[in-house]
Each structure stands twice: as structure tokens, then as C-alpha cells.
Write a structure and sequence with these properties.
11 helices; globular; Ribosomal Protein L30, Chain: A; alpha+beta; 321 residues
């Protein structure tokens, strides 16, 4: 009777850099995975991404060695045991709706924060305020689903606080320059990220975008001296600013803005620019709103919400790749 396969008998194969030999690598991958060559080429052209989610250990190592011989940079990962609702863990973000109440919110959170899943969190009001001001707000990692629901229920009592939950297995991250640092991200780092096939993000200004958790950790470890900070896309929130109009009369503009601002109508007809018209949007909603407003003749700009002070004149430092 065959023995039951153990989780450590299987590996996941990920590609971590652009494929330099698509013509020979794609047929090889297709043959070993029993998939069409076109699908193999698609997987090889998407970086970083998963080439194979689950392959027997010996087969995975053999395929990885073949791809490496063709110049394809891959990484092997152990396949984790499937999670059940009882064992699933999530990340929770507590974010201020506005930045002028950080101290007040920190005091309230310190008073209400239940003792669940937060052993690594500084529970003092000062520590919580510092975390609230960081990218993504106060993030509580590896919280059980049950404890996350408990947190939701408790934290809803605090006005001016937003709560977001993310599945770390599915989360994607953007790497942004940490403007709290006294120096900027060196050009050598961004150039290396481009050579690795990592793309910037126009919406957030990230130097690398859409990274899974493993790739995020790999990049942060490699460039540990650079002022980079990873931000979970599930925790990103955007404000939308009106920056211009096309073919819209002053009266039509005022009609549009009167429900979105507390400014006098006479001032709205002259529209102070930029004027915030939406706040706290998710990434998907920010992009959708921009498209909808553009169709109406309104030019907008989405800005990522961050609450820490931004240095006006960052000093460049030399940080090698």
C-alpha cells in the first residue's frame, strides 16, 4: 500500500528574474509540466510569478536545475499545508481616517486593544501612535480569523478609525521610498530592480510593485540598507483631488462640487486647485473613479495616504545592490 505523500515531498517553483532564453526554456517547461508551450511562455514572461504550484520534490529539483542551466533564475519553496478556517491567519491594519487625530486615536486604541494576536505590538499609546503614522497604519500580523473579527467588533467603537484585513498568502506588496529616512533610495538600487524585471507603480510612486510576500522579503533583505518600505496593496488607501476641468461651466462645476466640499458655492465656481473630492478609496476604486471623472471632463489626481512627515530635501546615500 503506497504511503501518504507528506507536504515536504512537494515544492513550488517560482521565477524571480526575466527569462533570457524563452525559445528553449518554454518548450522544456511545457514538457515537464504537461502544459501548452504558449502557457509555459506566459508563465516565464511574468516576473515574479509561480511556474508550478506543486511538484514532487525530485521532479521540482530536476526541472529547476534544467532551467538554471538555461539561465532562468528560479526559487524553490516548500508547499505549505492547506489551512482550515480554524488555522487560517490574516493581517489586520488599523488606519486613521484623517491625520490630525493620531494622538487621540492612539489613546483610544491603547485602551480598547484586546490581548489577541498582538504580542509583538507596542501597546503603549506612544508606540501605537508611531505605528499609526507609518505606511499602512498599525499592522497586526498573523492574527487568527476569529481574533480578527473580535478586533473588528471592538475597534468599530472608535470613531475616525478604519479597519482592513488581508490574507497574507494572496497579498501583493509595493516597495516605496521611506520618506522618514534622512536619505533617498540610490539610483543604483532602482536600476537593479529594473534589471530584475520589477516594475514601478505610477499610482503609488513605488520603485517596485506587485510583489508576493516571498519576493518582498527577498528584495528587502538584499537591499536592507536602502530606505525601502513594503506596503500591502490591501491596506493602501487613496485620496482623489480635482486638478482641472474640460468643457465644464463654472455653474456645472459648482453643482458637482457642492456635495463634495464644505466651501461656499461662490468659491467652488472658481475651484481652488487641487481640491480633494474623494477620500480613503481602495486602489481599485481610485482607478475606477479617475476613469469615471475623466469621462465627465474632470481631471483628477490620486494620492496615496501616508501620515508621516515627508522630508523636503532628502539626502542621497550610497547603498550597493
Amino acid at each position: 500500500m503506497p504511503s501518504e505523500a507528506r507536504v515536504e515531498d512537494f515544492l513550488r517553483i517560482l521565477i524571480v528574474a526575466p527569462c533570457p532564453s524563452m525559445l528553449i526554456a518554454a518548450p522544456t517547461l511545457a514538457q515537464h509540466l504537461q502544459i501548452p508551450t504558449q502557457e509555459a511562455a506566459r508563465r516565464l514572461s511574468s516576473v515574479p510569478s509561480t511556474l508550478c504550484e506543486r511538484l514532487p520534490l525530485a521532479d521540482a529539483k530536476r526541472l529547476a536545475n534544467l532551467l538554471a542551466a538555461m539561465g532562468v533564475q528560479v526559487r524553490l519553496e516548500a508547499v505549505s499545508l492547506p489551512e482550515t478556517p480554524e488555522t487560517a491567519m490574516v493581517d489586520v491594519s488599523l488606519q486613521p481616517v484623517e491625520s490630525d487625530r493620531l494622538g487621540e486615536l492612539a489613546q483610544a486604541i491603547a485602551a480598547w486593544l484586546p490581548p489577541v494576536g498582538v504580542t509583538s505590538c507596542d501597546r503603549s499609546a506612544t508606540g501605537i501612535e508611531t505605528e499609526l503614522a507609518g505606511p499602512g497604519g498599525l499592522i497586526l500580523s498573523s492574527v487568527s480569523v476569529a481574533d480578527a473579527e473580535l478586533l473588528r467588533g471592538v475597534m468599530r467603537r472608535i470613531a475616525g478609525l478604519r479597519i482592513a484585513v488581508s490574507d497574507p498568502r494572496q497579498a501583493l506588496y509595493d516597495l516605496l521610498a521611506d520618506h522618514r529616512a534622512p536619505f533617498a533610495v540610490p539610483p543604483a538600487v532602482t536600476e537593479t530592480l529594473r534589471r530584475m524585471g520589477l516594475s514601478p507603480c505610477r499610482l503609488t510612486g513605488a520603485v517596485a510593485s506587485k510583489l508576493d510576500r516571498a519576493t518582498r522579503d527577498l528584495i528587502l533583505a538584499r537591499f536592507h540598507r536602502a530606505p525601502l518600505v513594503a506596503m500591502n496593496r490591501d491596506f493602501q488607501r487613496f485620496d482623489l483631488f480635482l486638478t482641472g476641468v474640460r468643457n465644464v461651466s463654472p455653474r456645472e462645476l459648482a453643482d458637482f462640487l457642492v456635495a463634495r466640499s464644505d466651501l461656499p458655492r461662490a468659491m467652488l465656481e472658481r475651484m481652488p486647485r487641487p481640491l480633494r473630492i474623494e477620500c480613503g478609496l481602495t486602489r481599485e476604486n481610485a482607478l475606477a473613479f479617475q476613469s469615471d471623472y475623466a469621462a465627465l471632463g474632470f481631471e483628477t489626481c490620486a494620492r496615496l495616504r501616508v501620515y508621516h512627515p515627508v522630508l523636503r530635501h532628502p539626502v542621497e546615500a550610497r547603498v550597493g545592490p
